Amino acid sequence: MDFGFIFSSAAGELFSPTTAAYALAALGLAVHFGYSGLLNFGQAGFMAVGAYGFAISTLTFGVPFFVGLLIAVVASSIFALLLGIPTLRLRADYLAIVTIAAAEIVRYIVTTNQLTAVTGSANGLAAFEGGFYAMNPFPEGSYLGMNNRDFFIRVVGWSLVAVCCLLVWLLMRSPWGRVLKGIREDENAVRSLGKNVYAYKMQALIIGGVLGALAGMVFTLPRGAVQPANYGTELTFFLYTCLLLGGLGTVLGPVVGAMIFWVVLSLTQGILYGLIESGAVTWLNTVQAGQLRYILVGIALMLLMIFRPQGVFGNKKELAFA
Q1: Please, are residues 122 and 111 in contact by the beta-carbon 8 Å criterion?
Q2: What pLDDT shows up at residue 308?
Q3: 54: how many CB neighbours lie within 10 A of its CB?
Q4: pLDDT-derived band at 283, boundaries 50, 70, 90
């Protein structure tokens, strides 16, 4: 078993585009749940809206990259409004029900055969990333063992993560962010001070949704294709895993949580596949090993919740509302 290759592959996940996408989406969940107390179980839906909004506008209407980016952001904002208007005045569990259902509705809509010409149905859409890579300033060559396209998407993805983390950090240190934390702890107390709790919740839902839409774009650009199967409910649960690993009411927590999540997944997969190929494990095949790694991550998450429920960067004060 080649441990050098296994560990190098796992280390490569630290700064992969997929990890950057998960970090952005988990940061959006931190705005929703960690700072606002909004139980959003449909972050995968925001990612799908962002990815499809960009892909459809690029392929169908031929818009430039930044126009497609703007359309994705606007689409996610409208999606947040549609979710929030009927639910944000109700208990948090209603938002959870609506968001998880809405994410599935989005996924089923894009797989409808009648919309195949626009959404590609179950096959999805492809070949829409040309405008993005046309902006690549790096000439052809090797950059830290990567080609110029892979290096470019990593630079863009992690730069976006850094900018969004800074913006969220500044927002949460502002009076607006302090009101948001107050709503998380006791929204009736905040309402008694004359604050429009509904408006603050809606703003938080939109901001977290926009982060999810940006994550959807970063997630799909390296693949050059967007497919509905990638935006199932399990994606939202993986994002919550990243959030819990790093810490709920933190800015860097979701980023570190996403890194840990993907490194552990890659490491467990590499070790399990190596044991199967070497013949040390005969009762397991590669398909079963792919499922077993998620079981192992789930066990690790349960142990984390028992021995350090606040996550890597969190503190126990942040758990008072949960």
Answers
A1: yes
A2: 74
A3: 32
A4: confident
Q: Say if residues 42 and 236 touch (Cβ distance below 8 Å).
A: yes
Is it the case that residue 318 has pLDDT exceeding 70? no
The residue among 239, 260, 311 whose CA lies nearest residue 26 is 239
Residue 265 in tokens? 């997944």
Tell me the two tokens of residue 44: 């995968």
Helices and strands per DSSP (H, E), number in the chain: 13, 2
pTM above 0.85, yes or no: yes
State the amino acid at position 27 in one-letter form: L
DSSP calls for 122-175: GG-EES--HHHHTT--SPSS-BTTB-HHHHHHHHHHHHHHHHHHHHHHHHHHSH
Q: What residues contact 8, with CB distance under 8 A and at least 6 apart?
A: none
- CB hemisphere CA count around 18 (13 angstroms): 14
**Farthest-apart Cα atoms in the chain, separation:** 68
Query: pLDDT digits over 84-133, tens only?
Result: 998 888 877 888 999 999 999 999 999 999 999 999 999 999 999 999 99
Length of the chain, please? 322
Q: How far apart are CA 239 and CA 89, in angstroms?
A: 25
Name which of 76, 72, 54 is nearest 225 in CA terms.
54
Average pLDDT over residues 7-18: 88
Contact between 93 and 211 under an 8 Å Cβ cutoff? The reply is: no
d(CA 258, CA 245): 8
Q: Quick one: residue 194, left, alpha or beta (phi over 0 = left, psi -120 to 50 = alpha)?
A: left
